[in-house]
Design goal:
single chain; alpha+beta; four-stranded antiparallel sheet; two-stranded antiparallel sheet; 4 helices; 57% helix; 19% strand
């Protein structure tokens, strides 16, 4: 293991941390809030309890049982694909380990909600007041945040890898 790489099992630690943080925060919201109840933390951020039967940004929220079955299958396949991508190499950069761990932990966290509750518990509400209107981002949770941050880090990792590869291919031979 070099200074720039880390073995893929460390992803498991990140996955576990994301799942625990996601479960703890959702349990706290379930214990403290009724569905639809909210609390302003400060202007632009509220805590609320929302049940999301769909996927990101409440897409497919109104779908029937077949839609939910298909969503479960897609999520399970995504988890398996991410796991495969993660373990097919013996080591990854710290950035890719963090990214894979965040995405996988978030996906598993939301899948646990779907299996246990039949929906995902969302509770973070970000909003802004413009003029007399309030514009709100769709509600989300720790797992959603982990998935988004992990996806962003994966993109950054691929961009950095591509730049490094181009530099290596353009470098003069040492012969």
């Amino acid at each position: 293991m070099t200074e720039k790489t880390i073995r893929w099992p460390f992803v498991g630690l990140i996955v576990l941390l994301v799942i625990v943080l996601d479960r703890v925060t959702k349990r706290m919201i379930i214990a403290k809030f009724s569905v639809g109840e909210w609390y302003d933390v400060f202007p632009g951020l509220s805590l609320t309890r929302v049940h999301n039967r769909g996927i990101a940004f409440s897409l497919f929220n109104d779908g029937g049982p077949l839609t939910r079955i298909i969503l479960h299958l897609v999520i399970v396949v995504a988890i398996l694909v991410i796991t495969y991508l993660m373990v097919r190499q013996s080591s990854h950069t710290v950035l890719s380990v963090l990214a894979f761990g965040l995405v996988l932990g978030g996906a598993i966290g939301n899948l646990v909600d779907r299996v246990v509750y039949g929906h995902v518990v969302d509770f973070i509400n970000v909003w802004i007041r413009l003029g007399g209107n309030i514009h709100s981002w769709p509600n989300f949770n720790v797992a959603d945040s982990a998935i988004s941050c992990g996806a962003g880090l994966l993109i950054l990792h691929e961009l950095r890898s591509g730049v490094a590869e181009r530099r290596r291919s353009n470098a003069p031979d040492a012969d």
